[in-house]
Amino acid sequence: MRPPSLSLSCMALTALLCAAAGALAAAERAGGAPDLAFAAYQRGYYSTAMREAMKRIEANPSDGAAMTLIGELYSQGLSVRRDAAEAARWYQLGSDRGDRQATFALAVAKLKGDGLPQDRVGAAKLFEKAAAQDHPGAFYNLGVLAIENNGVVSDFAKAARLFEKAADLGDADGAYALGLLYKNGSGVAKSDERAAEWIGRAARDNNLSAQVEYAIMLFNGIGVPKDETAAAKLFLKAAVRDNPVAQNRVARLLAAGRGLPKNMVEAMKWHVLARAAGVKDAWLDGELAKLSAQEKSAVEASLHQYVGN
């Protein structure tokens, strides 16, 4: 149950830079008037969201949040054909009017080269602009950039400061990344206790990778008191979110009766799911082969019910 190395984890984080760009449900708007555009967006009524956002801009040409929403609709192709360039244009308009989510989304677009030329330096400047407005995702991404550092020596100390700022603002990715730095002693003094504190916080905020990592720490008693039952519950929570590593761990725990009551049918269900996702386990393969024909049929039925749901 070894966690991924920090370098691999941070490489993976780069692929997730755009994750917060879709979090418009948390977009800000001053005042207490009903927000019909964002309400429609949250409920999946995207044509209505577009129409209401346009109405807002007609009434207030400085409504940056409405411009950001339109950019998101174009970015995701919701009620309109996906048009990254048009999305970037709306993000730029929103950013020019001070909307921090627009600035963040524009930074992501520049970093990826999505709808406009790729520009890492320009993206970093925009992340800094959004961070100055306390955008948690901007601090997180600046931390990732500090680790990548354009291929030069990683600045883990700077990354740690930025991840902590992101985490303090409620960003689960930032908390998880900071926990990994503490676990590996990169940029901060190595501390399993501090690692568990931050990774546990991210896990409680439903960060999937953190749930798996924290479950490993609980199971092995790393930085926290050993608790196989709590670990098993957390592995199971991640398993139902289709994490193959968690599915493999749940299968092993069920097969061994550790942290969960022994149940070979359920164990093999999770094993088959994990194996289909690429997680090989010779021991579990052997246990599966030992099942009776009736037990194997029960596994198939359990799989069918799970996949059908």
UniProtKB/TrEMBL annotation:
Q: Which UniProt keywords apply?
A: Signal
Which SUPFAM superfamilies would you find in this protein's record? HCP-like
Q: Which domain of life is it from?
A: Bacteria
Q: Where is the signal peptide?
A: 1-25
What PANTHER family would the database entry show? ERAD-ASSOCIATED E3 UBIQUITIN-PROTEIN LIGASE COMPONENT HRD3 (PTHR11102:SF160), SEL-1-LIKE PROTEIN (PTHR11102)
Q: What is this protein called?
A: Tetratricopeptide repeat protein
